[in-house]
# Entry
Amino acid sequence: MDKKEIKAVHDDDLETLLSNLNILNDVKSGKKKCRFCGCVIDLDNLEAIFPDSGDIKFVCSNPECLKQFYLFLEKENV
Ligand SMILES: [Zn+2]
# Structure
């Protein structure tokens, strides 16, 4: 996944995207957590994903997390 390749996720292609990244099963089985608040990510509350330190991080739909996500993007200059 390219560093510039930030994905804002929409319901339609969410499962396809996660499947392409080989993380769909992890999300479905509750293994992934929000990068900012630490809540368990599922298909309903997943708002965005982004690459960080060679890993893929998740952002939940909590407005506070989205705010932090955008601050993070500015700081990282991506
Ligand atoms: Zn969160």
Observations:
- Residues 34, 36-37, 39, 60, 62, 65 surround zinc ion (CB under 6 Å).
- The helical segments are 11-20, 24-28, 63-76.
- The CA atoms of residues 11 and 76 lie 27 Å apart.
- The radius of gyration is 12 Å.
